[in-house]
Amino acid sequence: MSKVLIVISDYYKDISDYLLAGAKEKLDDKGVQYDELYVPGAFEIPAAIVFSIMSDRSSYNGYLALGCVIRGETDHYHYICKGVIGSLGEIAIQHAVPLGISVITADSKERALVRADKNQRNVGGSAALAVLRMMEICSQFLK
After folding, report:
1. Could you give the dihedral angle defined by the CA atoms of residues 112, 135, 37 and 47, in that order, rounded to the nearest 10 degrees?
2. 36 annotated binding-site participant
3. Residue 88 region by backbone torsions, left for phi larger than 0, else alpha for psi between -120 and 50, else beta
4. Residue 90's domain is classified under what CATH number?
């Protein structure tokens, strides 16, 4: 049975809750088991995934990164976005693990909420479907 670790930034908890609801709905529809792991912010998501990958106790077939970064008045937004998305891409490639990413980068909370809501854009659900497809591809070549 397939199992996914969902790593969720709870910095913008209302947005993360929407992302998680959309992702869980898709995983439940496919009968995929999952665990949830909360981290303080989007920046911590890649490290948590690597901790799991490198653990002797890890039993996950894929990883799902959920969170949000909203533009503020400083350049901080750009550095966090680039660091998080770049690190997640490197993890997927260097560790050859299926990874779905729904870390919203938005100009406002309102725009982020539209993208996160499972009854609107449902990017959490889309990321869940992406990791499931990547798990299929991975099993074709690496298992």
Report:
1. -90
2. no
3. alpha
4. 3.40.50.960
Which residues are part of the catalytic machinery?
Answer: 76
Residue 7 annotated as binding site = no
Which among 136, 124, 70 has a CA at the least distance from the CA of 100? 124
74 is in an annotated binding site: yes
Provide the terminal-to-terminal Cα distance of the chain, rounded to the nearest Å: 14
Mind listing the pLDDT tens digit for each residue in 82-115?
Answer: 999 999 999 999 999 999 999 999 999 999 999 9
Count of the separate structural domains present in the chain: 1
Q: Which two tokens stand for residue 10?
A: 């709870």
Which residue is it, tokens 């050859």?
A: 96
Chain-centroid distance, C-alpha 36? 11
pLDDT in tens, 116-130: 998 989 999 999 999
pTM, rounded to two decimals: 0.95
Which residue range forms the structural domain that includes residue 124? Answer: 3-142
Quote the DSSP letter at residue 96: T
Residue 43 annotated as part of some ligand binding site: yes
